[in-house]
Every structure is written in structure tokens, then in C-alpha cells.
Protein 1
Amino acid sequence: MGCAQFKEKHKDLIHLLSNRSASLQEVVGDSGCNELKMEHVSVLVKGWTWIPDNLDNLYFCRCGMSCLWTKSSVLADKPDALLFETTTPPLQRSSGDPLRVYMDLEAGRRRSGREDIFISYHAKDDVQSTYAGALFHNGRNYHISSYKNNDTLVYWSSSRCVPQRNQLAKSLLRLMPHHSFGKCLNNVGGLDMALSFYPECTNDASTPKWWDHLHCAMSHYKFVLAIENTVTESYVTEKLFYALDSGAVPIYFGAPNVLDFVPPHSIIDGTKFSSMEELASYVKALANDPVAYAEYHAWRRCGVLGNYAKVRAASLDTLACRLCEAVSRRGGRNART
């Protein structure tokens, strides 16, 4: 299917998604530059789980502002903000102290009650950070297979065996040829078998972890089953974005507003089918129809992104500059207590 045909066929969906942005915070051009009170902001990271070390850097952000993001108290000896993720911010902030920033990307997105700025995945939070960025899987083998397995259709990997998710996966996977890696519903002969199946997915790590080859292994399959641990609005995690980045078509169960976070006609929303049997029949028919399957990848060829560009722009990849802007708008250490 050509790009013109794809755009015509899905014009209503493309128009809807391109104009529906309530799920995402806007990051547009130089708007709001007059609200910034500081030309340089430094953020000292005090506790972290999701934040990779290679986010540490000196950034040159929009509006001519610079931003130092670091875990080193030597580099940021007088920070404008302190970022806490695994630990709780101080109970009180005195005049002249750094702003307290708290980050929680888990489904519950609970505020600490002590922060001046709250970061989470929802657009209603002070600063939004989606799971779409590349920094969530930095250091992985990014080899993308040019071959798709036609006999085994679905990739599934889970090592946190949540009963509800396991039952959902089991009810669907029993109907389709699949490979189940990880601890849950494993059918490939043990853990860490992906490298035995796909040796080209080995990276340079001396002791590779299972997540190092996750992205590469997924790329050998037409479909990846992605099930969130929790179903809640805007909680669209790396499970879905890994699948998209690997060149597979995700079969997704999770956030009810997921279409706000993905390119038009790029995923199969499992909740839209009346039964697992109906969903499995659709997936198997799609796998056997090269034209229909290619249509799920047309957004890549044609640059039809919908909100996806905004989702990437609101990810961890850009968090440093966006947080520094929020700190600058409040005046950093000079903010009112």
C-alpha cells in the first residue's frame, strides 16, 4: 500500500490522533521563554531507579537556557533543585534551599507530599515523562532482523509472574504459535534462551543480562504481546515501545487511551475484540496477508506519526531540559517557600 492510499484509508484516525493531545504536555518552539527566570539551572540527582547514568550531562535547551543534570555533588555544589526518586524529599524547604523534585513512574504515581515539582507519566503532573525514549534501553543490541519468523508468530517475555497478566497471556498464547521467554509460561527450554535462538543478538557485555538482547530478539517476530501490570489511563510503558522500536506489531493490553501514544494503525488493541479466539484468528489471518501486515508498518515509511512525535518529545530523553525549565520558571533557590 502506497503512502497516499494509507493516508486516505486512515484519514479519520490520523486526523483524530493528530488533534487529540490531552494525554500529553505540549513542548512547542520557543513558547513560554518569557516565563523563565534563570539562564542556567543545575539539578542534583539524589536517589534513582529509572534514571540511567548516561543522562548526566550539560544540556543546551530551548530559549537559550543551559541545564546541568548530574549525580555528582562536586559538579553541582550549589544545585537549584534536588531530584529524588527512590528516597523521600526533605520534609521542609527553607528560603534559599534547592527546590525539591520527586519522581514516580509507577502506575500509582503517588506524590511524596513534600515535593515542589512532581514528575510522572501523566499529562496532569507538573512534568510528564513518558516511557517512549531510547534511554530506557540504552546499551542494548539494536540489531534488527531482516527476517520474520513465519512459523512462530508471537514473542512474549515476562519474569514477573503477575497472576492476572499470566492468565490473560495464557488464554491468548494457547491459540497461536509463540515463543515465551522469561520465567512466566516459558516454552523455550529455560531462561536466557534467546541468544541460543539468535546468536547475532549478543552484545559486547562480558556477562550479558536478559534485557541486553530483548530488543534484538523481538525483531525476529511479526508480533509482540505487551501486557501492562496495571490498567490505568496514560500508563503506557516500555513494554509497548520496545515492540514498536524492534519492528514488530504489538498486541497490547493496557491503558484505555493507548492510541494517544502510538502512531496511527501501528498496534493491535486486544481489548477491542470480543474474545481471545477472535483476536487470535485476526492475528493469524494478518500474518498470512503480506499487504495487510505491511499496512501496520506504513506509518514508518510514510512518516505518519500522529501524537507519537509528542510522546517521544515528552520522554526521559528530554526530561533534563524540561525539568530545568520548570525549575527556572519557579526561580530555583529563590522560589517562595
Protein 2
Amino acid sequence: MLATLKSEEQSQQLQLVEREDVDDEEDLFEAIDKLISQGINAGDVKKLQDAGIFTCNGLMMHTKKNLTGIKGLSEAKVEKICEAAEKIVNYGYITGSDVLLKRKQLVRITTGSQALDELLGGGIETSCITEAFGEFRSGKTQLAHTLCVSTQLPTNMRGGNGKVAYIDTEGTFRPDRIVPIAERFGMDPGAVLDNILYARAYTYEHQYNLLLGLAAKMSEEPYRLLIVDSVIALFRVDFTGRGELADRQQKLAQMLSRLTKLAEEFNVAVYMTNQVIADPGGGVFISDPKKPAGGHVLAHAATIRLMFRKGKGEQRVCKVFDAPNLPEAEAISLK
């Protein structure tokens, strides 16, 4: 009986904060429907929505060349649409103080580990891409499962108070693993699982199309986390040999660009896992000659790069490999 009351109280609390969060979201992005008030035809707005563009902010992230590729939109229409969007959204210069004010809207989602949170300056940050790379069984997917739960915690409990989207390319998502994690945080496992939007991707094209469909969901409901586990797996399967490397990297760059735009457009945290490859040219003096897959394209796209490796027994070691605002050499053990 007590457990039931606690569960009902928790769900009511989450729903209440969710509604408040939706009000705050209005300041973060402008719905594409607002173009109608600027004299844009409702039919043209519908064409933009069919192409996966649901906010004026997202519209400004597309080139005019891309927009003219949408069926039914001429160059003249695109020009008019862009002019209308510029009146709604300011994408020009702003001061450093304004940037600081914007960064205060960012949310840091707890990882469930106090030591790892301290390493990351509070947790996984929204509006940017966090990449975790390492060997198999080094803890990358386990952290993804924990974030599925901690993201749904209220902000006063260092959560994101939002839903989670999970794109699985390796078939490693386990809902039964979510249950004990939810119980650990004192949450109702059923409610937590209902707030996770899951999709299994089988090709790199399928993976990209799933990202296109997410904009519609994120414009309607408060999402705080997008997980891609792993980002590179399907590219390594669908593109083989050096002859297809350039094409692979170009397609990967487009995928990562889409992730970056989703993160900034909807203020969601993107957590993606990455595989490692052997580095024969690493030299004899390097004890572990491995490097993250994806090359420079992936390295430049990720804002924060975390390196995971196995420690003694059940321990896992996480090191900040690259970050604009965190010390690089610091390492930490997870149990």
C-alpha cells in the first residue's frame, strides 16, 4: 500500500514539473506555425513539417539549397520563408553576457555516480554531444541505461525532468536492466519505461531517418536526452574498404550535424557511444594502442569525449579525453 502511494505521489510530481517545463520550452524554440502570422502559406508550412522541420530555429539551421530540395518549394518561396523566420528568430550577433545567460538554461543530468558527476562538472550537459568510447564491456552502454532513468528525475534531484529517445544500432538495450536502476532512484519502473522512446536501427540510412522523425516528437513533448548506441557501428558495416571511406565520412558528418542541430534546437543532451579500432602506428611505447573510430569527422563533432576502460575487477575507469571546459588528464574509477 505504501509503495503504491509513493508511486502515485512520484508520478504526480513528475507530471506537475513536466507542465512547468513545457512553459519554459517556449523560450527555447519558436514553432514553425508562427510563420503563418508572417504571411507564409499554411500549405508551405505543412511541406516544411513533412520534411522534418518543426521549429523556426531548426529552419535557420538548413541551407537554402536544402530547402529548395523540398518538393513544392521554389527559390522565391524559400527566400520569403527565410526572411519571415529571421523576423521571429534572432540568429545574428549577441554579446558574451547573452551567451552566459543562455548557458544558464542548460541542464546537467546526473550519471548516478558522484565521482563521475564531479569529473563532468555536474553531469551530462544538454545542448551538446557527449561521446563515450572504449572497448566492449567497459561501461558505455551501462551508463546509457542509467541516464535513461536519471534524465526523468526532477531538476531539483539533478535530473533532466524529461523523456528519453534511444536509437539502438547494436541490439544492446535491455528494459529489464532499467527496472532495478529505476528502483534504486525510487521511481516507478513502468512509468520510466513508458517515457523511453526506443527504436532499433539496421542500416545507416534507417538511423538517419529515425533522427529526422525525432524533431516532431521533441517539438510536442519535453525530451531531455537522446542516446545513440553506437553511432559508428552501422557505418562500419555498410561501408567497406578504403574505396568507400570518403563517402562514409561524408554520410557520418551529415548524421553528426543532425545530432548537433537536435541538441541545440531542443536543448537535449546527446549521449552517443563509439567503438575503438586498433592503431598499429601507435608505437611500441604506448601500452594500449587503440583509438576511437570515426576519424577526425567524429572527433570534431563531439563536444565532450570520454574514454572508458576496464579497471581491476568490476571497476571502470573514465577519463575526459577532450572537452572545452573540463581538465583533460583527470581520470576516475567507477564501481
